[in-house]
Write a structure and sequence with these properties.
single chain, alpha+beta, NADH Oxidase, 3 domains, 5-stranded antiparallel β-sheet, disordered N terminus, binds flavin mononucleotide, oxidoreductase activity
Length: about 375
């Protein structure tokens, strides 16, 4: 009886530390859209209300990728503690529009803790996941070190080839030149900004001065955006007041790169000046998935995501493994989702890369080794 209660308690402690470690996962605009709930056997994962991007991410692609990445972080943390997690996706994940609209309180995935091997006690083990990855911390291990870096980066030859081994056969990394990426990024930014609500929504996630009440919690800070301090402070007042924010966001639809950089999470240097970094697109090959036939297949391919939602979630898990692979080599990502957020830019990208209708691009990023010693880290919600 005592034994059973001890095991339960240590499992609960282990699960809490796994949840803390998984909070290091990446998410578009650092929204952190996950809502984990610890149960007697594991973790139930849902989406957090108000932490999705209904305007910027209407298909739910980025939300599903982030939830997948969170899940993979949890799996990595459990492995590091000598335990495993079995992941089962629940049917509610199939409705991305409900997920993005924050209408769904349903469990999207269940992570069940595997039984401890004989003699292991879970959370009490030497290599607990907290050692691996304190949320927002700077551990020497990959989860806590994984990074988005929007400044100058050096090349790491062979990085993409190595990273490809982390992927299942239906996902691949397609290289793209710096010049092409710069073009698609500008096109995507300009196009996305014409959509009502997008700039306003993004401005709402900016944290441009430490006095912002959520500076240490979530969103994009002046530091991680590498904004010059005077400029960031100037803009901070604007982005904190909703009316001013909306006015300036509207004006930005017609203005300079500088203002766009303030209002959109766009890394303008990476694709242009920084020809050292490599750039790639994560592409799903629907031909290699069993997606049915005839009308059924057409329905999936024509749906806004172009893939079943559970596959995008799975791609998020694989993406995180690739991100950790590059982290171990000292490298970071500088994503460019604006390329896929715009149908125009995405269409041109597919044509340029020779992708056909069943090749679904899911993520675009630059990758390289940050040229600074202490790259800025992004904020995280506190996890108990
Ligand atoms: C699906 C997804 C899309 C993202 N898109 C962009 C993007 O378009 N531009 C960008 O600068 N960062 C992008 N990011 C990176 C996030 O902003 C970053 O993960 C977040 O701010 C937390 O920072 P961290 O990765 O350093 O922990 C994206 C991340 C994810 C998971």
């Amino acid at each position: 009886m005592n034994d059973r209660r001890d095991t339960g308690t240590s499992d609960a402690a282990l699960l809490r530390s796994i949840v803390r470690a998984a909070a290091n996962a990446p998410s578009a605009h650092n929204t952190q859209p996950w809502e984990p709930r610890i149960t007697a056997h594991g973790i139930e994962l849902g989406v957090a209300r108000g932490r999705t991007l209904p305007f910027g991410d209407p298909t739910g692609r980025d939300t599903l990728l982030a939830l997948g990445a969170w899940t993979e972080c949890a799996v990595v943390a459990a492995d590091a503690a000598g335990r495993g997690l079995d992941v089962t996706v629940r049917p509610a994940i199939a409705d991305p529009s409900a997920i993005v609209a924050g209408r769904s309180d349903d469990v999207l995935a269940e992570l069940r803790l595997r039984a401890a091997p004989d003699g292991a006690t879970g959370a009490g083990d030497a290599a607990g996941p907290d050692d691996v990855a304190p949320a927002g911390g700077r551990s020497s291990a990959p989860l806590g070190n994984r990074l988005t870096f929007r400044g100058r980066m050096h090349a790491d030859p062979g990085l993409l080839e190595g990273a490809s081994f982390e992927l299942p056969s239906w996902l691949r990394l397609v290289p793209i030149s710096a010049k092409d990426l710069a073009h698609f990024s500008s096109l995507g930014t300009a196009d996305v900004l014409t959509r009502p609500g997008v700039a306003e929504e993004l401005a709402g996630w900016l944290r441009l001065a430490p006095m912002h009440p959520r500076y240490d919690v979530d969103g994009l800070s002046d530091r991680t955006m590498l904004l010059p301090i005077p400029l960031a402070r100037l803009a901070a007042g604007v982005t904190r007041r909703r009316r001013l924010r909306n006015l300036s966001a509207r004006a930005a639809r017609r203005t300079s790169d500088l203002v766009r950089r303030l209002l959109l999470e766009v890394h303008l240097d990476a694709a242009g000046d920084d020809a050292d970094a490599a750039h790639f697109v994560l592409v799903a090959d629907a031909n290699r998935l069993d997606l049915g036939r005839g009308v059924e297949l057409t329905r999936v391919l024509n749906a806004p995501l172009g893939l079943p939602a559970d596959r995008v979630f799975e791609a998020g898990r694989a993406l995180l493994r690739v991100w950790l692979f590059v982290t171990r080599r000292g490298a970071a990502f500088a994503p460019h989702s604006e390329v896929l957020d715009s149908a125009l830019a995405q269409g041109e990208l597919q044509y340029r890369l020779g992708l056909d209708r069943r090749d679904v691009p899911l993520f675009v990023t630059s990758v390289g080794v940050p040229a600074v010693a202490e790259p800025p880290r992004s904020a995280r919600r506190r996890v108990v």
